[in-house]
Amino acid sequence: MPRFSHAPVIHTLAQVVFTQVLPLVERIPEIQGRFIKAGYPHYVKQQLMNLAINISPQINAAGNRVAMSDRFQFLHRSRTRVAWVTSNSIVFATSEYEDYERFAEDLTKVLAAVFTGGGGVTEGALIQRVGLRYTDRVVPAKGDTIEEYVAPGLVGFSFSDVSILPNTPRTLQVVSSATTELGQLIVRSVSMPGPQVLPPDIADSPLTFRICTPDGEKLHQTYAAARPGLTLDFDHFADFQNEATNVELTEDNVLRILDSLHSVLSEAFASATTPHARAKWQAKAEETIPSDDRNNAVAEPAEE
Fold first, then answer.
1. pTM, whole model, 2 decimals?
2. Which residues partner with 16 through β-bridges?
3. What is residue 59's predicted lDDT score, i.e. its pLDDT?
4. Residues sharing a CB contact under 8 Å with residue 34, sequence separation 6 or more, in sequence order
5. DSSP output for 274-299
6. Which of 94, 125, 201, 258 is the most exposed place for a label (fewest CB within 10 A)?
């Protein structure tokens, strides 16, 4: 199973949302201790603002409520992995993706830190949502065009026959969604002026990352504008809130659901990228790149 020498993946994220476990917040000191031992010494307590909109016709906008909630961030010493914990969610992200197996191993360590540090308070909680998301930065090799790397529907309007000012920044955002057997699949292509390469909703990620080009360059994120490209974002999530069958919050259940989500993302990535792109990214060890497997390819047909 090959891996790419110059894989375009820059950010991978898994999210688990579950029923409220208020005692989990009280166990944060113990959870932090587990994270420190796992290599996550940087800790920050954050506050999130949640807006609850009342849609009842009998109540006007004054009935809307803003609620604050705590989120606890645990950043790895390498600053390439991070976990966030709240009373009803665990999120893990990395900017150093090797393959899905390694990603699952790292996520397992995060789940263990929360479940063990939580002292069993999460036992009996129910999963409400599980999501897996890959973000790639596709940078063409010198002399190539972005159209040679991604499917036509992802490159947006060309403006080639329209009178526009030359050499001016262009913004692109294409969003496509579909229902799968598991839940919802969203595929986005994004191009923003300047150095921003992550989608706006995760642009404040504390992770450092480098952008690999087919030429073998590894651009630091602050120099992303030096090589124009396109961001592909693959997001697949399953919602269990209205399921008749309860799914308990366990490590095995989370990993089982993520594995199924990943299989569909592999197909999406294969459809979104071209054989030319995958050849330019180059598989290691002279192995043939399967057209439908991204399990071991950092940015191959097994992406999201």
1. 0.86
2. 90, 130
3. 55
4. 112, 113, 114, 116, 117
5. -HHHHHHH-BGGG----TT--TT-TT
6. 201
